Amino acid sequence: SSETSDFHMNRPLVPGVYVPTMCFFEEGTEDVDTETIARHAVRLARAGVTGLATQGSNGEAVHLTHAERQLVTVTTRKALNESGYAHMPIIVGCGSQSTRETIQLCREAWEAGGDYALVLPPSYYAPLFAPASETVTSFFTAVADASPIPIIIYNFPGAVGGLDLSSDVIVQLSRHPNIVGVKLTCGNTGKLARVVAATRKSSPSTAGGNSSQNHPDFLVLAGSADFTLQSLVVGGHGILAGLANIAPKACVRTMQLYSEGKVAEAQAMQEVVAQGDWTAIQGGVVGVKSGLQGWMGYGGHARSPLPRPNAEQANKWKEGFRELVMLEKSL
Amino acid sequence: SSETSDFHMNRPLVPGVYVPTMCFFEEGTEDVDTETIARHAVRLARAGVTGLATQGSNGEAVHLTHAERQLVTVTTRKALNESGYAHMPIIVGCGSQSTRETIQLCREAWEAGGDYALVLPPSYYAPLFAPASETVTSFFTAVADASPIPIIIYNFPGAVGGLDLSSDVIVQLSRHPNIVGVKLTCGNTGKLARVVAATRKSSPSTAGGNSSQNHPDFLVLAGSADFTLQSLVVGGHGILAGLANIAPKACVRTMQLYSEGKVAEAQAMQEVVAQGDWTAIQGGVVGVKSGLQGWMGYGGHARSPLPRPNAEQANKWKEGFRELVMLEKSL
Amino acid sequence: SSETSDFHMNRPLVPGVYVPTMCFFEEGTEDVDTETIARHAVRLARAGVTGLATQGSNGEAVHLTHAERQLVTVTTRKALNESGYAHMPIIVGCGSQSTRETIQLCREAWEAGGDYALVLPPSYYAPLFAPASETVTSFFTAVADASPIPIIIYNFPGAVGGLDLSSDVIVQLSRHPNIVGVKLTCGNTGKLARVVAATRKSSPSTAGGNSSQNHPDFLVLAGSADFTLQSLVVGGHGILAGLANIAPKACVRTMQLYSEGKVAEAQAMQEVVAQGDWTAIQGGVVGVKSGLQGWMGYGGHARSPLPRPNAEQANKWKEGFRELVMLEKSL
Amino acid sequence: SSETSDFHMNRPLVPGVYVPTMCFFEEGTEDVDTETIARHAVRLARAGVTGLATQGSNGEAVHLTHAERQLVTVTTRKALNESGYAHMPIIVGCGSQSTRETIQLCREAWEAGGDYALVLPPSYYAPLFAPASETVTSFFTAVADASPIPIIIYNFPGAVGGLDLSSDVIVQLSRHPNIVGVKLTCGNTGKLARVVAATRKSSPSTAGGNSSQNHPDFLVLAGSADFTLQSLVVGGHGILAGLANIAPKACVRTMQLYSEGKVAEAQAMQEVVAQGDWTAIQGGVVGVKSGLQGWMGYGGHARSPLPRPNAEQANKWKEGFRELVMLEKSL
């Protein structure tokens, strides 16, 4: 059927701004709020982002059942398709402790209309890995072998007990035909430079933009908006960053200005983005939801046991985003 | 029906040796091996332990689906009931990141015949807790309010990104009528002494045993076998320790000797246990399974991506348990 | 001269309570306050402790110059000698990052009248150790070869970036003729049991005391007062614990009661000690000094940049020690 | 005298490449090798670097006495002055645990001819800080008030038990007239962007270079060579990076190419630098010395207990730098 083809059409992974979307819940029941999820996805798409990612840290993946994860992804896919964004790819967070469940999540992501799987390494038993790099490599290889959708490696030491994948490990994994990118939330732009250099087949891009970079063999994404330019200048391909839930246009425009060679303007915008991101980094999903609620009138709260900001805290999060939101509204 | 009553009969939490049982898998498929799970449970019961715990770290809880978790607990419950151990309690690991899923796991544990829920605090979003002790307290209170079975707090900083519950927090939580104990895997016996002192209503036990301690108001368990006596001497009530999968009788006998006032003999046995535990601590679920396979002829491997020991490693794990197994066989 | 012989007489390392003494400073200048240092040392000696340790964490070793370290040790030695405690040994903290400076500190400790050197492993460059256990072993061996006084290994992961010496490493080092003990501040009493078992030549002691333990070949000390009994019950030889600055008699009496076989009384006293220690653990040198000032009228403040408690905080530290101080005064 | 004026002349802190120089030792005695220290300093100066820094992590500050620290700085100062580099500034590592000793080190640094003091926050008693940001701010303020030379904040969480100064704290401290810069070894280029933005008075520089940036009010330096461009693109002023001991010209040229607007060439060179830096990051002072010895014929070994590479390891370090050294020799 056409719906099936809409669900599973080819959506290439190209440079740009990707948004790990928030998951929203009904206020009283904490049930998944599909209406807000759909509305938020469309808002982001209309702002010009390149793709969305469900079930990242901002999407509260660890608070969702398998069925809820699929509901969120299906809702997002349908909302995009119905609003004219059928070509926009969805990345789905699929990390888990066992190889078996990770593969299962990749399959369920595909069923729900996901195009790529973002996979954290397992870490609960990390002291038993023998050694870590070998077990991690085996894990990603087994998952990539079995997954119906391509894998994006997710390097986020803060979420996995400090386990930090080196450039060597990432470069080795990049050779697998079904591993197509990495999100570096570690913030290590030296590592990012090494990974870009080792995985790029074409010549390096220039500050003035480079069409040969439009379909990189291996997509290297910064995990936070506060190091967008810092990644682009060494050949990075964009960001997958929670702050874009608040200010998608500012994130997109920062990249555009740089690729158009307007470095000083890009730098000025990057500064506002970086300052706003400081609030997002400190507040995490709690602060970003509070900021959304304060400025956009929706957002609500994270699932329990995450705390709900009191009035003073909510105001603090709102004010932390003020300058960025003013910029966003001017774009 | 009688089966239902068997499932949900009253099984008090008394001092003793509790075993966080391994979960076993078919060699090729990695499917749950219910036959071995049942056989192992009965072996432990016959060795004289006080209770079992499914879905701890040794039980690879993070590698199991909800349905598999129930299968393991049901299998264990039935195996005990059918072998004359219907009165032996089963503790079920129920920790999760959301309050919602944790309560769900407690309900499923009860449905599967579990008697108590062992609950880790959530930690994925710990930097957003406000402050940690308050969010943790709210979490445990909400879970205990809703759970059909009583809660045992699981303090294991190594499994939750370093989140370490203080004696103050544990003592405060102990006042909840549905929170009945704590497993201290942190190894902090000073904390253990404070918790015992603050939660005990009767007078302290003596080295010679004390029947008034048979039904403590709040059960304080050491999380490793290598500090059994160190816990008992300050009023602790026993252990919930992975090493008992290898040497249940030695663990039980160490406690008995101490409670009979045979301190020197207890100390001598504790030394062998502590040395064997060093192998279990280093090898974790990989090493303990390897030791079981080497000495008892069953055990197999942990689920992927946990590595499988090669011949040399398997021999190292086996030898690490030799002295302890010799002791065990002599009891 | 007789003074020299007083300085360097043979002072065996026997089981008991050792106190890592505070270092005191003049209020305005932060210069070393030798008068209070001397008075404090004599107070502790009169309370019946077995030995003192200068330049531990409580002694603010990292805040002192080499000359000040010697001044503190000389002052302590002279105060003891002049008060009739010439036989009381002094342990001197001598850890440093280079083998060279560590040996120098050991020599200076000896010159100042120190009897034993307490040595932390270096950790600044720990990621470059190859591997850690080998470099640490080489370090301790080189220091013990060159030091004029015997070495006590100091295992305190919290002070050295998490570097935690295993029982294997400690047991291996214990074979060096000039390495005579270990202070375990890690709180790992399972490790303590393994080290005691492996380093003891005679038979294990009983709860009723054992004279054959009076001169152990390798002294194993708990690093905090809150696990005194927990160490003794597996053959440990005592404590080297900051809390004894506040309540030396209670610490000594806890050990005595246990060695006299009065386990229930020892346990009751251990509870008060453990609760008081919780304040000392939280407050560290800042809280213990504040407690001393509040209850004994001396103590002052730690060197900058350590903060000075305001009135509210000072009261909190004082109250945290109330029950323990009441016990101490009753002894 | 003219020598005194040479020692203490005004040497502004300008953007560029700063090298934390290695400290060299005689092979047998491990005594300070002043001849090699002088020779190395001159080699770096001739390669075109902007300044040197003694007593950083690469300079083994923690292995040196106060007198040796002064010897190293004096030797470096004299070597520069005698070779025509009297105007080249020297930064001196002065971090210590007490405010008192830190000020003393700043004074000694000035006496030895140092121009700026690079200061780590104290961390040994960090859990007692109240709160960390307040104690750290007090510390830096007191040091800056008393130091005869301006202070550069050194943010290197890996060296101080994870203590990581936020952009808020750094920006607040930048307002002190005697705090003139920061070295960010944390690698957090988002933080770097925030600090640059908040401390800059003039307009942002462009990729094409900007003379108004020649005397920034607050100098923001990257702590590793592998994120040079990533810092420059958001207004950073250069690097203070150990890799420049191996390849000073490549580091300098990378910056120059970028400031000349040759971004693609800068990027290509940055890739080689970043790959070489991966070896320096893994090997630390041990690997960099080994690389120097392998390629330049001098370097020797770090002080004990740092391990000495065997032949195989030495070859690994040498090969890790091959591509970079080939580039360096071509410049």
Key structural traits:
homotetramer, 331 residues, alpha/beta, eight-stranded parallel beta barrel
Largest interface, counted with CB-CB under 8 A? A-B, 37 and 37 residues
Query: Could you name the CATH homologous superfamily of chain A?
Result: Aldolase class I
Whole-number total of structural domains of chain A: 1
Strand content of chain A: 5-15%
- The CATH class of chain A is identified as Alpha Beta
- In CATH, the architecture of chain A is Alpha-Beta Barrel
Structural class of chain A: alpha/beta
Say what the CATH topology of chain A is: TIM Barrel
Average pLDDT for all residues of chain A: 94
Oligomer: homotetramer
Q: Tally the beta strands of chain A.
A: 8
Number of helices of chain A: 12
What separation lies between the terminal Cα atoms of chain A?
39 Å
Gyration radius from CA atoms of chain A, angstroms: 19 Å
- H/E order of the elements of chain A? HEHEHEHEHEHEHEHEHHHH
Q: Please state the overall shape of chain A, judged from the principal axes of the Cα atoms.
A: globular
Name the helicity range of chain A: 40-55%
Structure report:
The structure is a homotetramer of 331-residue chains. Chain A is an alpha/beta fold. Chain A has a single domain (2-266), classed as Alpha-Beta Barrel (TIM Barrel), CATH 3.20.20.70. Chain A is 47% helix and 11% strand. Chain A is built from twelve helices and eight strands. In chain A, strands 1-2-3-4-5-6-7-8 form an eight-stranded parallel β-barrel, surrounded by seven helices. In chain A, strand 3 (90-93), helix 4 and strand 4 form a beta-alpha-beta unit. In chain A, helix 3 packs parallel to helix 4, helix 4 (99-111) packs parallel to helix 5 and helix 6 runs parallel beside helix 7. Chain A is globular, with a radius of gyration of 19 Å. The termini of chain A are far apart. Chain A binds chain B through residues 30, 57, 62-63, 65, 97-101, 122, 124-125, 127-130, 134-136, 138-139, 142, 159, 161, 283-287, 302-307, 313, and chain B through 30, 57, 62-63, 65, 97-101, 122, 124-125, 127-130, 134-136, 138-139, 142, 159, 161, 283-287, 302-307, 313.
